[in-house]
Amino acid sequence: MHKKVVIIVLCVAIALIGVVIGVSVKGCSNSDTGGTTGQYTLMDLGSKGCVPCDNLQPVLSSLRSKYSGKISVKFYDVNRTSEGAKLANKYNVSTIPTLIFLDKNGKVVKRMVGYQSQSEIESAFRSLGWI
Question: What is the pTM of this model?
Answer without folding.
Answer: 0.72
